[in-house]
Amino acid sequence: MTTKVDVKELVRKAGDVKKIFVITEDQLVKILKNIRHATFATITAVTIPKMNKTGNPYYDGVTKAFTVRKVAEVNLITGYDYELKVKNALLAAGQNPDEFIVGERAWGEVIGWGLVSHHDKLYFRTLPRFVLSSKFVDLQGNDLPWEDVNAWCVKRSVSQKQVDAGLDEVETVNPCDYTVSNIVSIRINGKRYTIKR
Q1: pLDDT in tens, the chain (197 residues)
Q2: Helix, strand, or coil here: 10?
Q3: CB contact set of 167 (below 8 Å; sequence gap of 6+)
Q4: In angstroms, rounded to a whole number, what is the distance separating the alpha carbons of residues 48 and 149?
């Protein structure tokens, strides 16, 4: 008799056996600054989701703040070359990679393969591969119904330049930069870290 094995779950459990290092945010920044090439990582981040305000039950009009957080564990690539990724996607889609001309970054200054600086904040420069887990919680950490909260979230847009060059929306390369202060844990270069704040 053959038993179906959940490979992702086995990998996660194996990772749980490794020692977890507790580091400060400054130490995390140093690790991210030392990225010199494309590197796989998995992070857990707690973020304020981008949401519509008008009529939103998760937006407090008095304090002008959202009352919901998104907790996500994401497997990603950092230290990547954006232009090369897009051109490779165009080649894979049977399109001419020369149709895509990369422009200036819309915001921030890349200060290393894994970091962006913008208005005195640091961002972890990533290209998400897949989401391992994701949920919405209230300010006390209680789970909220996914469908209810997600209905108020602003949908991510895709790069019109990539679409114009011949990629359909599913094929586009969609970077996502995480505020470093929102990262609560990271697995990178064979090590696991929890960030102490």
Answers
A1: 444 545 555 455 555 546 899 999 999 999 999 999 999 999 999 999 999 999 999 999 999 999 999 999 999 999 999 999 999 999 999 999 998 988 888 899 999 899 999 999 999 999 999 999 999 999 999 999 999 999 999 998 889 999 999 999 888 999 999 999 999 999 999 999 999 98
A2: helix
A3: 86, 89, 90, 93, 95
A4: 12
Strand partners, 121: 118
DSSP string, 46-95: EE---B--TT-TTEETTTTEE-EEEEEEEEEEES--HHHHHHHHHHHTT-
Contact 174, 128 (CB under 8 A): yes
Domain count along the chain = 1
Q: For the whole model, what pTM was predicted? A: 0.84
* Segments forming the whole domain that contains residue 56: 9-196
Per the listing, tokens 């950490």 go with 141
CA–CA gap between residue 164 and residue 100 (Å, rounded): 8
Return the H-helix or E-strand segment holding 135: strand 121-138
